[in-house]
Amino acid sequence: MQISAKAIKPLVSKVIVIGGGIGGLTLARACLDANIEVELYEKRQLDAMLSGAGGIFIQRNAIRVYKLLWLEKIYQRFYAQGGKIFKGGFKSKSGTELYINSPEFAGEEDLGICLSRRELQQILYEALPPGIVRTGMTFEKFEQTQDSVQVYFQDGSTTTGDILVGADGLYSQVRASLSSKERLEEPLYSGMCCWRGFFNGSSVSLDKKYSWMEFWGRGNRFGYFDVGRGQFSFYAFNNSEQGGNDDCVGGSLNALKLIFSDYAEPVPSILKALENESIYRDDIFDRQPLGNCWGKGRVTLIGDAAHPVQPNLGQGGCMAVEDAFELVNSLTKAASRDQVVLLLRQFESSRSKRVTRVFTTSRQVGQLGQTNSAIGCLLRDWIYRLTPTWLADLQFKWLFDYQPSWKE
Ligand SMILES: Cc1cc2nc3c(=O)[nH]c(=O)nc-3n(C[C@H](O)[C@H](O)[C@H](O)COP(=O)(O)OP(=O)(O)OC[C@H]3O[C@@H](n4cnc5c(N)ncnc54)[C@H](O)[C@@H]3O)c2cc1C
């Protein structure tokens, strides 16, 4: 149920958000639901903001947030357009099942929705009235007083709000400004690169039992998932030097074929269904968790700006969604306006344990999935095969136990 206007006592009247990714757009919608004025500034032009490589898992924990927002309208569009997350898991590169889960382990019919990033951004953007999102606006710095924050943009313009939220991703300039740095230090390279893209489900014979699957090889992995309406997204990781590219092998499709052609079906068939031009490659990074305190005064951070993680759990964006909700929820608490700064710090420390656990678990799953040695892979596959499903489920169950609700 959406929060009723009567029940809300917002502590702030205007929030300035930097960044129009999943975190910033969700935060803006949550502010409006809580009767808080919001302005969102995004450095990219609208077309670019509404794009993105491959698909994304919006898992049950984040889906529960969307059930609370905007009379479930975002939630309903997700389910109308996306692919439900049903049974899926990990197999060895030869096709042996290592760990297969199904939504029952979290007590649900499905574990959420997968969408193309483009569709996700479009749906979130369309959930906001015109004028809230201002594109082509690059945040530069802020200055704060006891009562407000003044924000400066690269084009010389400024705006003022009660609080400033940096939702500006891995290279967050808001986070850099918090420590008076001109630019944030480099993030930590994971040791692997990632290719992403799409294929049409009708061109590949897929096992209908599974809506997603990930195959684990030696120093590389290949996964696919249903993003709805007959489309599938794939991703592939490979241990490699930072800053590499596929020019020397004649493009990304050739690179994928060289690494993954000897994987079990349907991987070779998926490779055949891909087009070189639509494959996107990038390097994977994270940053050490910030601990209990992410911001300063009236400035805070959410999502990748605060806690970028490796994408091995498909939870980085989901954590941004949880942050967005929890931040606005804390601002609707019945308290006096001079407690705003305290509430921001409480918000950060309340999120710290969970996002740190996602960071650590993501790294652990990445280490297992990207194991390089033959013996290591044998051992890994053997342990996974022998582990009872209920025990393996416990590794992930805490993620799905998140139950957001508006505070009265
Ligand atoms: C390969 C891969 C797969 C992934 N899969 C999943 C998945 O399945 N599920 C999941 O939940 N997560 C996944 N993630 C993680 C997820 O993509 C991120 O955690 C999520 O996008 C973070 O959202 P955000 O809003 O915090 O930041 P971002 O999405 O990075 O958005 C930041 C925005 O801020 C803007 N910006 C930056 N600087 C400025 C500035 N100075 N001024 C104004 N605007 C600025 C940017 O242009 C951008 O639009 C994956 C990540 C990768 C790399």
From TrEMBL:
It comes from the Bacteria. GO terms for molecular function: FAD binding; oxidoreductase activity. The keyword Magnesium does not apply. InterPro entries: FAD-bd, FAD/NAD-bd_sf. Its cofactor is FAD. Residues 14-185, 292-360 form the FAD-binding domain. This is Zeaxanthin epoxidase.
